[in-house]
Amino acid sequence: TQLLEQSPQFLSIQEGENLTVYCNSSSVFSSLQWYRQEPGEGPVLLVTVVTGGEVKKLKRLTFQFGDARKDSSLHITAAQPGDTGLYLCAGGGSARQLTFGSGTQLTVLP
Amino acid sequence: DAGVIQSPRHEVTEMGQEVTLRCKPISGHNSLFWYRQTMMRGLELLIYFNNNVPIDDSGMPEDRFSAKMPNASFSTLKIQPSEPRDSAVYFCASSNLWGTRSGNSPLHFGNGTRLTVT
Question: Cβ of A92 and B112 within 8 Å?
């Protein structure tokens, strides 16, 4: 069974601060996706990374896939209250199904 | 595109009753997934279908759970009999997973059904 551990589990910061959340595994994944989930809604895809070492930027969000394709990070610059939500990483494996991490609950205070 | 549609949004039932959750995937998607989300266990895959055929149901917790996909536009997840420990948010998601080389297509989630079994 492929497991994904996310850290921290909870994060509360002030508007304007920077933050990084991590997604780690002992297994190699063919791809890594990041989702954000808001209360009362389903997760929504933010980005997919597929190549070891790949870095993708989405406005203030920077996603990185580890060289060995076992880990990933999400960095948010100058966080805003609208960034509040549950951030989930999900690893793609040979069975074409995704394994989801436990999530990081981010709260950005105004 | 209306997205993935789930019903009902909320379900409150008594232990022992049958519960049926419904899902309409995005038109044209060939894969459908049922997930369960709780604070303790996070997002767990229960079962997924490809072209209406169940591919992997190893995540279904017990025989009390069953899922069907009679056609490409409809799926149900049934719990009979329900128990308090089944209380969770159940999500349906669809994708074109088998249409890609490496299965990197995103999952499109519905807004979930919040199930409370008392």
Answer: no
